[in-house]
């Protein structure tokens, strides 16, 4: 009977809806399907209008199968679906501009023919990044391609932030991590991670508009726009971004006008399901000078911190950097650098660069000695203290044994001796307390450490061979 009735877009879509309604929960049905308008039916192609690009992506991501079976039931196996997307546009132009995309053709969106520049309707908005003829796809993302996830070494220090970042990149605006706030001290990888998220989004969703900007630059552009009477353009520009990454938002502290405008942008983006990624050098609670209403919004999503990486991760990071630069370095030098620098990753990179520069300038091979001299000069200015880890490693290497043994309860003579030497040097070369040295050298108490220091002092005076060990080790441990 159905076949005899003239089918229209409306009736076909009604048929689809009743099938869809039976197959998903009511909330999703209301949210994602009721707002859709059937537009046109031609041959077996049904055009539907969706309210935004975000909507379209969401449908394609989550309901493509359902849509496909619904439309196949209505129109047969040859059926096709075409989306018409109302471009978000609040610029006093009420007629929606639309772009058309065929269903389930994500790959094709990259096709230059289909990837029509999405024109933002009406008024010419001044783009603070000064890209002529504002077209949405033309926004330069300002991303640094070296700061990718591939180059971002994972460790305990960054696991949460990294995986949250990765999740966000896979589904911008579609996770509960919105905003995602990454915080941590200087040189610990905040900017790198922020770029990585942007790069990953661009990779997966080339049609999305991603923008990386520092808080300072955002502020400078805002001030300019006020001066030039183009504040609305400034706001509109930022409101059309799909993934907005603002680095170092702690700089907003005390800058009320900038916070106000950022608040406006933030709300617009968040309400429209756009992703916001922020970095800060401290946790939201410690961001003094930032308005409460902004701070409370930062807490809507996820705050994840970055810590200083453990030794293993530091070594892995150095390997990665050297590999990327195509340079070789003896393993003992790599370990030495990882052991000796305990400030941040940027300092480790600085040390590698100085070392490479030194070695090529003086035509010297990169050796442990050269590394020591360099570290001595390079890291002296920063708070440098030799670590107990490093002392243990040097002592163990010297006696050709495993660090695990030194930390064990073993009472074997050679091991007791090595352990005592490590304690002795830890006392001499670090500011650690006896108790803490003991705790790190096989869970001993402070009296044991004191005893070790005395024993080493005594033996140095009475045993020639032992004195040789001590002198050798001291040379290895103290620089130059
Ligand atoms: P921040 O923004 O926190 O001050 P950056 O993101 O600028 O720090 O990182 C400093 C340097 O350390 C960068 O060159 C970055 O590539 C590097 N870095 C930080 N974390 C990692 C990591 N997990 N893996 C590889 N390199 C890293
Ligand atoms: Mg940074």
Q: What does it look like?
A:
The protein is an alpha/beta fold and 480 residues long. The protein folds into 4 domains: 9-101, GMP Synthetase, Chain A, domain 3 (2-Layer Sandwich), CATH 3.30.300; 149-306, Rossmann fold (3-Layer(aba) Sandwich), CATH 3.40.50; 311-383, Helicase, Ruva Protein, domain 3 (Orthogonal Bundle); 388-477, Chromosomal Replication Initiator Protein Dnaa, Chain: A, CATH 1.10.1750. Helices cover 51% and strands 10% of the residues. The protein has 21 helices and 9 strands. The protein has helices spanning 9-23, 26-33, 53-62, 64-75, 106-109, 159-170, 190-204, 215-227, 231-239, 256-271, 292-298, 311-325, 331-340, 345-361, 368-379, 388-399, 403-407, 413-429, 434-440, 446-462, 464-477, and strands at residues 37-42, 45-50, 80-86, 98-102, 180-183, 210-214, 243-247, 275-280, 302-305. It has a 5-stranded parallel beta sheet with strand order 6-7-8-5-9, with helices on both faces. Helix 10 (256-271) links the parallel strand 7 and strand 8. The longest helix is centred in the last third of the chain and has 17 residues, at 345-361. The radius of gyration is 31 Å and the shape is elongated. Residues 88-97, 105-125 and 130-135 have low confidence and may be disordered. The chain binds adenosine-5'-diphosphate and magnesium ion. Adenosine-5'-diphosphate binds at residues 147, 151-153, 158, 184, 186-192, 317, 320, 345-346, 349. Residues 147, 151-153, 158, 184, 186-192, 317, 320, 345-346, 349 line the site of adenosine-5'-diphosphate.
């Amino acid at each position: 009977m159905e076949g005899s009735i003239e089918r229209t877009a409306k009736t076909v879509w009604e048929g689809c809806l009743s099938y869809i309604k039976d197959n998903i929960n009511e909330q999703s049905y209301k949210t994602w399907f009721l707002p859709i308008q059937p537009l046109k039916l031609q041959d077996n192609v049904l055009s539907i209008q969706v309210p935004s690009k975000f909507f379209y992506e969401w449908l394609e991501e989550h309901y493509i199968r359902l849509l496909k079976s619904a439309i196949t039931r209505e129109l047969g196996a040859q059926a096709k679906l075409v989306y018409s997307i109302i471009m978000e546009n609040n610029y006093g132009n009420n007629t929606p501009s639309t772009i058309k995309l065929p269903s389930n053709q994500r790959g094709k969106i990259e096709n230059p023919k289909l990837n029509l520049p999405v024109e933002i309707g009406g008024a010419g908005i001044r783009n603070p990044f000064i890209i002529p003829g504002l077209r949405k796809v033309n926004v330069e993302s300002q991303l640094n391609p070296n700061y990718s996830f591939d180059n971002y070494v994972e460790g305990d220090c960054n696991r949460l932030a990294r995986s949250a970042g990765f999740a966000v990149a896979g589904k911008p605006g579609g996770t509960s991590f919105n905003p995602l706030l990454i915080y941590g001290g200087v040189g610990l990888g905040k900017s790198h991670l922020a770029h990585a998220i942007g790069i990953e989004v661009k990779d997966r969703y080339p049609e999305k508009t991603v923008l990386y900007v520092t808080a300072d630059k955002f502020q400078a552009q805002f001030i300019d726009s006020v001066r030039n009477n183009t504040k609305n353009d400034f706001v509109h520009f930022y409101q059309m971004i799909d993934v907005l990454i603002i680095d170092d938002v702690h700089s907003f502290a005390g800058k009320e006008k900038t916070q106000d405008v950022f608040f406006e942008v933030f709300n617009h983006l968040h309400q429209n399901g756009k992703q916001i990624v922020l970095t800060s050098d401290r946790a939201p609670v410690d961001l003094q000078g930032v308005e409460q209403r902004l701070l409370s919004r930062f807490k809507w999503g996820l705050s994840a911190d970055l810590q200083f990486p453990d030794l293993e991760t530091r070594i892995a990071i150095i390997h990665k950097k050297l590999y990327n630069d195509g340079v070789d370095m003896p393993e003992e030098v790599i370990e030495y650098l990882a052991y000796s620098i305990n400030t941040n990753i940027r300092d480790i990179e600085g040390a590698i660069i100085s070392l490479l520069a030194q070695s090529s300038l003086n035509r010297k091979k990169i050796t442990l000695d050269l590394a020591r001299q360099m570290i001595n000069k390079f890291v002296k200015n920063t708070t440098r203290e030799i670590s107990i880890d490093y002392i243990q490693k040097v002592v163990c290497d010297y006696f050709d044994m495993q660090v695990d043994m030194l930390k064990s309860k073993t009472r074997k003579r050679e091991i007791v001796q090595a352990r005592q030497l490590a304690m002795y040097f830890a006392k001499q070369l670090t500011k650690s307390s006896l108790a803490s040295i003991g705790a790190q050298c096989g869970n001993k108490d402070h009296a044991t450490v004191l005893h070790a220091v005395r024993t080493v002092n005594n033996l140095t005076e009475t045993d020639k061979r032992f004195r040789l060990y001590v002198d050798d080790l001291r040379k290895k441990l103290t620089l130059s």
